[in-house]
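ok trying this again, last paste got cut off
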Amino acid sequence: MVNSYEVFKHAFEPTFTDRVIAEYNKNTDFYGRILQDESFRKKLMEMLMLDIYTSFREEMGA
């Protein structure tokens, strides 16, 4: 069974932020913008979530 997008989103959002913080020192300009620019962060997160969610659904045959 594949989770709904809303359930996936609920789990993805905090993980996304944790990973951005963990990777911050590798590219402070890019990751700093993600952390400081809420509009940019939301757009990027939504694009990544949808892409990853769609890939998972395809792999599961849903």
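PB: full thing came through this time. The two ends are 8 Å apart (CA to CA).
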